[in-house]
Design brief:
By secondary structure, the protein is α+β, with helices and mostly antiparallel strands. The chain is built from five helices and 13 strands. The strands form four sheets. Strands 5, 6, 9, 12 and 13 form a five-stranded mixed β-sheet that branches. It has a four-stranded antiparallel β-sheet with strand order 8-7-10-11, with no helix packed on it. The chain starts with 14 loop residues before the first helix and ends with a strand.
Length: 305
């Protein structure tokens, strides 16, 4: 992808978001639940786009048995709770060239969505701030189950999860030519008592050279989620190939993604290829749904907490 960079917009810090959360924890929980219910069957799973990767050690733990649900991937089944039958430590992956987490710059200016008012949200399809642009694509509702891989896969409550990915054309907001002034498909939430957060987004596209994926970072608290270097885990998740094939062939705006998918696989991907089999099984989201109704998905994220 040949992106031209432009200076990103600046927004006020999100201190007011933190103060509001501290004052109204119950309202935040209700909002989270309402957003999940409103998404209904028009839900989604996640994938994004980025560069180079690294594998990680595998740590296996066991806990209570998880529930079951329809899946088209190898992650935790849709509809389960945060408790999982087993988990491994997620591989650490690159945050890529488009993280928007304050760890890189464009034209000498830091690019950091984490400090902008409005980034804390469950529905990440639209830009926040002065823009009202909404990313088009097949709806996807993705639930992250964040667990402690060093302590029996116990749910990690009050952890912050920052998610970002490319749009259906393979472009990244804040960076790619034509969308530098947007900040859609980026957002952060705090895990509930079950270690869960759910994002409403779109099914991401596939650009040349990368398998369909989504980026995410996990922080030990929302207070730490102001700079990518504070993250406890930087990783990516993969989308199941059958779901990608169906979306790219059956939904408008994904034609280029269909062609790009034919040239890549998980085993050839420069990020995922060096991971252990157990890691990739966990890092591939479980997805169900259709192009017409949208998709839902779940993923278990093992953190060394």
């Amino acid at each position: 992808m040949n992106d031209r960079h432009a200076r990103p917009r600046h927004h006020p810090g999100f201190r007011s978001d933190l103060e509001r959360m501290a004052r109204q924890p119950q309202q935040q929980d209700r909002r989270r639940l309402l957003n999940w219910l409103l998404s209904g069957s028009a839900a989604v799973l996640v994938a994004g786009c980025g560069g180079g990767g690294s594998g990680g050690s595998t740590t296996t733990a066991t806990a209570n048995s998880a529930g079951t649900g329809t899946t088209t991937g190898t992650g935790t089944a849709a509809g389960t709770t945060a408790t999982t039958s087993s988990c491994v430590l997620n591989a650490t992956e690159t945050n890529g060239p488009y993280p928007g987490d304050g760890t890189n710059t464009l034209n000498g200016a830091a690019v950091n969505a984490l400090t902008q008012t409005g980034v804390m949200r469950s529905d990440i399809r639209g830009s926040f701030g002065s823009s009202t642009t909404v990313a088009a694509g097949v709806p996807l509702a993705l639930t992250f189950n964040v667990v402690n891989a060093n302590n029996g896969c116990a749910a990690l409550a009050n952890y912050a999860v920052y998610v970002w990915h490319c749009d259906r054309a393979g472009l990244y907001s804040m960076y790619s030519a034509g969308v530098q002034n947007e900040n859609y498909l980026r957002g952060i939430q705090v895990t509930n008592a079950n270690g869960q957060v759910t994002f409403t987004t779109i099914f991401p596209g596939c650009y040349a050279g990368r398998y369909p994926h989504i980026h995410f970072e996990v922080y030990s608290s929302i207070g730490m989620a102001t700079l990518g270097s504070n993250a406890r885990l930087i990783s990516q998740l993969a989308l199941p190939r059958d779901a990608c094939t169906t979306v790219y062939a059956g939904a408008s705006g994904y034609a280029t993604s269909a062609n790009n998918l034919n040239g890549v696989s998980i085993s050839s991907d420069n990020v995922f290829a060096d991971n252990a089999a157990a890691q990739m099984a966990q890092m591939t989201a479980a997805v169900s749904g259709s192009v017409a109704a949208g998709y839902t998905g779940t993923i278990t994220v093992g953190v060394a907490a």
